[in-house]
Amino acid sequence: MFKKFFPPLIALLITTLSFGQVPVAGSRLTLSEEMKEPSSSTLSDYLGEDESYQYLLRKKTKSTSTFSVNSTVFILESYDKNLRLKKRQELEPQIKGFRAELETVQYLDGNLFAFILYINKKGEQTELYYQPIDKKTLLLSGTPKKILIIPYDSRSKQGDFTYKLSIDHKKIAIIASVHDDKDLNEKFATAVFDTSMNSLWEKQITLPYESELFEKEQLLLDNNGNIYLSGRLYNEKAKEKRKGVANYSYKIIAYRDKGNDSREYEVNLSGQFITDIGFNITADDKLAVAGFYSTQGTYSIKGISFTLIDAASAVMLKQGSKPFDAAFLELFTRSQLDKKDQEIYRYSLDKIIIRSDGGVLLLAEQYFVESYTTRDYYNGQYVSRTTYYYNYNDIMAINVNPNMTIAWATKIPKRQVTTNDNGYYSSYTYAVAGDKIYLLFNDNPDNLLVTDPAQVAKYSGVQKSVATLVTISSDGKWKKSLLFSNREQGQILRPKICKQISENQFFLYAEKGRNYVIGKAVL
Q1: Which pTM does this prediction carry?
Q2: Residue 313 buriedness (CB in 10 A; 0-12 / 13-18 / 19+)
Q3: DSSP 8-state assignment for residue 287
């Protein structure tokens, strides 16, 4: 529905491994005992924790008929403070006595809720229910309550539901798309709820742009229950360029005051392509919008742009741009830079972190997919085979001052290239603790002492890898540390599942085959 939403185990001392390791400074690492996951399942999300347990959500593929039709079921797990599995429960919701489809489980300010989809074909509608989950038994509790209804036409047009927690995790927005091929503009049923699933507001929303011309990107729910949606609006035809000129502008649409006040914010930069944006909302109700810009197109970047908008009045308070300086560009290899304009290739803006003084921190990663198709002659005919290469490379960190100058910019060399796995063990996770930024990812062990980007060895999978922690100081200087060896631990870190769970803690998850461990790193 949306292109992207918006992106530390027994105590272990990492000082005795066999290949010139660097110990982790200031990090206390605790790993659970090795456990076995249910067959055909994979961990999908860390939900949250209370004073007694952590709660994780797992997806499992299950055959539902003699025709081997597979469906996805959800398994809820709880772990105690010693990281021991206490309970594992498959969730099997029912509506009106019939089996229903579990959409997701959300952890809302200490409460677990299941969101359940029921197709009412007779009534020609898709019905969304919520049902509490007992945290001790992990069983569905009480009676399901209907919260949203949208028209049902066919299985392919039953509606898509998007769930977004507020920044403080005390509200949840649910947005259901309404499929109607006759409508030029996309319609949504929208509702916002508090921690007890009491409705705060509901609204039928129609986007002000034609669906074919508006590409949705980021969704945000602020602590006051206001919804913000960003996207690209194309001119006449959905293509990046038209006669060599940028053919789109970025828009942010807000639905404030219980959805009664809708307004738009335009984000553009005269004479430049804005290639990517992210946004966040400050404590004093300002939209901080940052992004990359280019003089060429959409696959390279020249520098950063920054816009500060008063969210209530839509008045632009600040706007500016800054090209990357020569010292920063020297951190990149020749293959990463355009020779003529010195623009950097293929970086995606992952995260905007609001500083307490009004500045912002930007994190970006170089990401792209390559495919190669070969044809082989087999049993009298040609057979084509396509191999996909998932590239997750260097991480860029840029610290922007409130006056829109760049305090510092740095690049952490990383080269992850894997095939046909959708980057399962690739990419990174991050945490901000005190005045430091922490990045965590899988790497080739030969890179622990390497800082020259031209000398970085490739990480290509699970056979030879380590979990690496990068610490970036307040002045932009960084250092690598070894968190643990994936080979000696027996599992491989999954960065896309790991996340910061408190002011100074990472949640960690590592697996190989059906064996896995969970853990924490205190920063």
Answers
A1: 0.87
A2: exposed
A3: E
